[in-house]
Each structure stands twice: as structure tokens, then as C-alpha cells.
Amino acid sequence: MSIRIAIVEDGHQIRKNLITRFSFFDDIEVVFDAPNGIECLESLKHIRKEELPDILLMDIEMPGLNGIETTAKVKKDYPGIDIMMQTVFEDRDNLFRSIQAGASGYLLKDDPIEKYVDALRDMKDGGAPVSPAMAQKLLDHMRHQAGEHKSGEEDFDLTSRELDILQCVVDDLTEAQIADQLYISPHTVRTHIKNVYKKLHVHSRASVVRVALTKGLIS
User: Which residue did the predictor score with more confidence, 145 or 170?
Assistant: First the structure.
């Protein structure tokens, strides 16, 4: 099954190069490309629901409506679409703001195309790909916030099984891996994850990790 993606990038040549490079991978289908967030939102409006992209490859720095603002709007109207941010800088603040907006992954523009494709496949399987350096920055930032706010920890009323699931999600396990580890069916895993999302008031795996760490829900 192919992974349907859309490329949102203000650099014309960058979009063109990405489309060409993705064409060499049979499981990657570029549904559309857009030079900014406004045109991305317009394109999404004119696509049938069953043909929407699975993943948006989203530039951060764009004129008019930047990638983080566009991400927030997309996740509000199309919560089933995952968003992979791409940038030229390992910027912790942008990473954190992107995740708050609903992004599920983060790539650097100088990453090789093979890394792009691996990350897209990982995201399609439920992963949240972030470069190791950025992941460490993010975790350090979240743990610092967790230390500051733990005294005011909210009660999200998670069951013990939901906490087990939450820990697995934070550990970046796929649904299949969670099912194997907890000896339950993938369908049951998906049901628990849906309940966790609802209780934490989030719409993406990356946001689950953020809330879990900042609220001190897992160790």
C-alpha cells in the first residue's frame, strides 16, 4: 500500500527535487505540492476524503502562513493527517511549537532522501520520527517542565492498562509492538490509544508524549 504525501514548501526547486526523488520509491505517492500554507489548505478542501494525503511534509519558514500555523489548522480540520516538519535548523523552540501544533515528526532538509522515506514509512506505521539530537533536546525541555509543574499534576483518570499503553507510546513502539509486549490484540491497542488521546485531549502521538512528560504521567 502506498503512502500518500503532500509537499508544502515555498522553495520551488526544493519541491521539484523532492517530487523527482520520491518518484523512485514505489510506495510513495505525491498527491499534491503547495508553495505555502494557504494553498495547502485550499488544496485539501478540493480533495475527496478517501484521497487525502496520509502525511504532509511541511516546511516551517513560509510567507503568509508558516508551517506551524498551517499545522495547527490542518490538525483541527483533518486530524487523521500526520504532519512531518522539515527545516534547515535544529531549533528546539520550533520543534516544541511544532509538536504543540500537532506535528508528529521532524526532519532536517539536508537529510538524505532515504532518511526521508524511512521516516515517512515509520510515521505511517505509527512512529514519531525525530532526529536523535532533536529528540534529546525535546526530552530535556519536557523533563524540565515536568519538574516545574509536577506539583500541579492533573488527574486524567487513566486506567492502569492505559498507563501501560501510554508508556509504550512514549517509548515509540508501534501498535504491533505494543500488542506483542502487552499480549493483547492490535484492535485492543488502537482502542486504548484512542481512549488515551481523548482523556489527554490530544490528536497526535507527539502530543501524547509531550503531555505525558510535562504532566509527569510516566517515569
Answer: 170
CATH code: domain 151-214 is 1.10.10.10
Find, among 124, 128, 127, the residue nearest to 99 by Cα.
Answer: 128
Q: Identify whether the C-beta of residue 28 lies closer than 8 Å to the C-beta of residue 120.
A: yes
From the list 84, 88, 75, the residue with the least C-alpha distance to 119 is: 84
Beta bridge partners of 3: 28
Q: What angle do CA 13, 81, 187 make, to 5 degrees?
A: 140
Percent over 70 (pLDDT), the chain: 86
Domain ranges in the chain are 3-131, 151-214
Please tell me the distance from the alpha carbon of residue 93 to that of residue 137, in angstroms, as a whole number: 10
Distance CA 57, CA 105 (A): 9
Q: Does the pLDDT at position 29 exceed 70?
A: yes
Q: Where does 35-182 show beta strands of DSSP type E?
A: 55-59, 82-87, 105-108
Helices 160-170 + 186-200 axis angle, to 10:
90
Largest Cα span, the chain = 52
DSSP 17: H
**Domain 3-131: assigned CATH number:** 3.40.50.2300
- pLDDT, tens only, 48-106: 988 999 999 999 988 889 999 999 999 999 989 999 998 876 666 777 788 888 888 88
